[in-house]
Amino acid sequence: MLLTTPMTMMDFFRKSEGVWFSQRTVHRFDSAGDESGESNLIIKVLDSDDRRVLQICQEQGVDPTLASGGASFQWQGNLSEKEPDPNYEAILVDIPHPQNTQVGKFLRNKGYVEGIPVIGAYHFADDGVLTIETEYERNQGQERSWFVTDDFRVRVSTVKIVNGVNLMTYCSERRCVSPSFLEELIEKNRLRVSAI
After folding, report:
1. Residue range 78-108, pLDDT digits in tens
2. What's residue 32's pLDDT?
């Protein structure tokens, strides 16, 4: 069950930290057709003094003392045994509003829609749904994300080009069990069986 709903971006990053199995469906409104896929999403929380956070602030001309921290996002094929490709990593830096931490901006080293540095705006609704608005050079993106439980979350997004919506995406993501947690469960089961 869901224990706490994150209401700040850093709380959202902390609750998201780990490896997620992501199932994605993309509906395109052009001739490219629809697609679906599965991947692992690897999220790591970054402190405000992390070199990557400081570098992105410097590159985008933002005072690094305004940053509360950030997160790195990496993607890989869910059956891949290789290390994630650093070319598919995105770094987000949280710049919360000074009077209302449910609202803010984030810096991103490369955008999801266009691979360029971008600044987006976010806000958390009272029910914990996170909405992110991103303006690119030629596109607009909106993403909504929320936790159903601590280990299951949903993301939906749209990308608009000049003449309307270009694509819609739905992702359901389940947290992967870590090897140490799995070992702990196996040991508890062993102890339970041996006590019988």
Report:
1. 766 777 777 778 999 999 999 999 999 999 9
2. 67
CA separation, residue 188 to residues 6, 184, 185 (Å): 31, 6, 5
Please give the Cα distance from 68 to 94 (Å, whole number): 6
Instruction: Say if residues 138 and 160 touch (Cβ distance below 8 Å).
Output: no
CA distances from 130 to 7, 36, 63 (A): 8, 23, 24
| Superfamily of domain 9-194, CATH level 4 | Calycin beta-barrel core domain (2.40.128.20)
Run of H or E including 187:
helix 179-194
Sign of the torsion formed by the C-alpha atoms of 84, 71, 113 and 128: positive
CB-based contact 96:68 (threshold 8 Å)? yes
Interval 54-81: pLDDT, tens: 999 999 999 999 999 999 999 887 766 7
What are the C-alpha distances in Å from 24 to residues 15, 38, 58, 137? 20, 6, 34, 25
Q: Are 166 and 139 in contact (CB under 8 A)?
A: yes
pTM of the model: 0.85
